[in-house]
User: What shape does this take?
Amino acid sequence: MKRTVATAIAATAVLLFNVGSTGGANATTDEFDRTELGSDWVTAGGGTLHIAEGQLSADGTPSEPVSMAFHTVPAAGNTQEVAATIHWNGRNPEHSAMSIALRADPASEHAGVHFWFTATSMGLSLLSWDGVVFTPAAGTDAYIPVWFKWPEGTTIRLRAEGDYYAAYVGDSPHPILAGTFTEEEVPHTNRYGGVHGQDDSKVPGGGEPPAVLDDFRFSAPAST
Assistant: This one.
């Protein structure tokens, strides 16, 4: 079932994560090798992303409103990268999406830029704080077909440098998506990275639950 950006992608649960020491961190990882996100996380919204069998899952989260969780420490720099590993676990979600995100700022209610995907579509979008609107980056469409489902265990990556945002799949050095947001739309001083997830499986025509994510990496690399 074809759904609007507002309902198909923004009926989500959002996790914005950020780890490090006071003053920010140049790099961090999270393998989710525990049973709960832990006390460093502050959650909000309609549901809670959770750890299931060592993977970050959005299964069972409400279609809306979105759910959010925030870590308390920002990244060290304006240039940022976030990455994760995809596990389908035998699923073929066409509407239930997951994403990796960066340049978020919970204090100013800014949800950041997201590289979202299902088994059949993807996009590079700015998510509104209320989780209702996904605004595609300049130079990209709202929905972009994924002609061949990415293999199990594929790594996805999103990089922000200045106004330029580039999304990568697997080991390719070439972005699969690239576009821009102005600094007014996405302040470069936003320094939180994360993920959003959406389970549409209980919505009529919503299909299967989303993929799960693992091996999170969030960093502030040197500018190129």
In short: The longest strand covers residues 80-87.
